[in-house]
Amino acid sequence: MTEAILCKICGKRRAKRACPAVQGDICTICCGTEREVSLSCPLECEYLQEAHRRERPIPISDKQLANQDVAVDEEFLRSREELVLFCIYSLVQAAIRTPGAIDADALTALEASIQTHRTLDSGLLYETRAENTVAAAIQRAFTASLAEYQKLRVEREALSPVRNSDVLKVLVFLHRLGQQNSNGRPRGRMYLDLLRHMTPEQRVEERAPSIII
Ligand SMILES: [Zn+2]
Ligand SMILES: [Zn+2]
Q: N or C: which end of the chain has fewer CB within 10 A?
């Protein structure tokens, strides 16, 4: 007779699922309470995927949405679809390649980029940088992608760069989407997971998360 394997986290209940975050078997209760709380769950975890599909984001009213002065409607998003998808893709890449990055960091990175583009709108070139190092790393990679996008437009397609005010609108849209799709868990990545599913199949090598229990 084989003995029941106990959960690697609580050591009391019977382990029912393989958890890539602890690299061991855990019980369903610990998975539910510790997921994205004390555990940095890889996005590939099937239980995390299932949870993100079921979970309701923390409700947020329209009034709580940031950048109220910037109007973004569907028509605009349709007309700038390519840029929107490019920004989503770049943000996900930047976040997934930054070890320890969570939704809150992606939002902080966006906030700094929004501020930079607002300043640019008033004719000044001054980059606002995110203070937290993880967010700053996301912002750096994201900004570089966007600059590359503009450069290719000009050099390869002989187009003018996308207007600053349009880039600002896309950033504001992405930020709102994040505000509306956060699950409130300390290490939550529901928003990044959503963005990942909005872009075509990607092969992003995710860095192994650190194990902190
Ligand atoms: Zn347990
Ligand atoms: Zn998991």
A: N
